[in-house]
Design goal:
It is built from four helices and five strands. It has two domains: 70 residues, no CATH class; 40 residues. Strand 2 and strand 3 form a beta hairpin. It is mainly alpha-helical.
Length: 126
Amino acid sequence: MALALEAELYAPNRDDQGTYIDFVPSLCLLKNGIKCVCGSRKDQTFYSAGSFKKHLQCQKHKAWLKMKNLEPQNDIKMIHEHEKTIKNQQILIHELDQEIVVLKKKIATLESPKQVPVFDLLGIDD
């Protein structure tokens, strides 16, 4: 079975002042493709430096980068929200795992053979 590799998600670099700046990733990353989350082209994967450079110059990508620079705290806020979501999902998974254990025990007890006493209620065998 072959390993399926997905395209990397593009994230701009930060300069010394903390401003997001675009960069063209290495050929190693471009080998599997790279997707930009700016929203200009949904689900488009770039496989060459030239096509990705051209994408970086489009107006929607530039506007996205500008918004990232205007609201840099938004990333930290999103990280905290994601951490909270992950924690809640871990709790939910744990609760469901416990419920599965309980239900498996019930199934095991219901499937186990029962000793039923046998009586001759009609008295025929006497």
